What does this fold into?
Amino acid sequence: MTLFDTHVVVDWSARSRPSPARRTKDAIFFAVVQDGVAEYPTYCRTRHEARSLLRDLVISETSAGRRALIGFDFPFGYPAGVAERITGQPSALSLLEWFEDQVEDDEGNRSNRYVVAERINRLYDGIGPFWGRPASWNHPDIPTRAKARHGGDHPPERRLADNRAKGAKTVWQLAYAGSVGSQVVVGLPTLMALRNDPDLSGAVAIWPFDTGLDRGDAPCILAEIYPSLLQKQAHASKGDDVLDAAQVLCSARAFAELDRTGSLAPLFAGAPDLTDEDRATIIREEAWILGLGHETALIDACSRSLAA
It folds into this structure.
């Protein structure tokens, strides 16, 4: 028996305006595999549209008594110590609630993410830890480059997962090539909006903060994923489509294939060599990337799904 009936992977975006009508890179895509059948990836021009569609999907699945796994491609947490510095509590869920309260993000993709990042930077000595902004943008508490940062009490640069995932960017980089920092700021409120939606009546849990390093038993599990773990497979399979779309489809199909063969559960335990201290930090504050530490199984599953 599979753990989930539906497997979804979302490529998030921090664009400041709606994406073009034509499918393009650096926009929001999500792929859905239902009962092992993959759908053509959905393209969303705004975060508001994506959140609405995903909410509808979760309501539909859970109302039908089905389980759904939804993976988002941005970090779910910050390095150890950040949550307590910002909220007074060493808890990722407290930090996510703080972001939900602080972030403003309208239907046209206009957000106050740099204002929020400045508020965090002011909690630390000197300049930083957030960096990366267009030089013309008037946010003096955020330096344009990482080397301009200074201060004696800055938090760690990377999480445990970031140190292991090849090519992973730091959560503190808000702009420029490959950056993920802005996606985190505007993405965390979506996790909490789904988790706390009154129409979902507690049906949504965030892995591993709500579940521990376990698959959990909520009808819908939200998990951090990293499509670059399957980057080669996505490049080989994309055809004429946008690479971002191919990446979410490859990842969704890989998770569905692992589930079909009864091999998905071990991924929720994290990497096999994590220490007890690592696990405690991950559950309490930092989160983990689903599939990190199980790359061979993930790649093999993706290859089987593409060959089917």
